[in-house]
Amino acid sequence: LILFQKGQTSTPPPFEIFFCFGEEWPDQKPKEKKLITVQVVPVAARLLLEMFSGELSWSADSIPLQISHPDLKDKMVEQFKELHQLWQNQQRLPPAQPQPV
Prior knowledge:
By secondary structure, the chain is an alpha+beta fold. It has a domain at 1-58. 36% of the residues lie in helices and 10% in strands. It has a two-stranded antiparallel ribbon. The model has no long low-confidence stretch (mean pLDDT 76). InterPro entries: Interferon_reg_factor-3, SMAD-like_dom_sf, SMAD_FHA_dom_sf. One of its GO terms (molecular function) is DNA-binding transcription factor activity, RNA polymerase II-specific.
């Protein structure tokens, strides 16, 4: 990426990662003919490449994000955030004054 950014190579580096499950790979068959293949595109790598090539437009619509379905860990993180916020709010309150009996 640095060589591409400096103009020392004309082709951008590949940043896609391919996984093949259940079969030998690489072999004579192209990846399109495999039973199960997964393509992973690291968003940070794509953004850096677009930034260096001048293709990046910094609008929210230009970055397609896919959010996975929340699972138990995500819900726990949200609950911990809420608890932390409640604790911070409680720390800011003045100490309670004793009520006369």
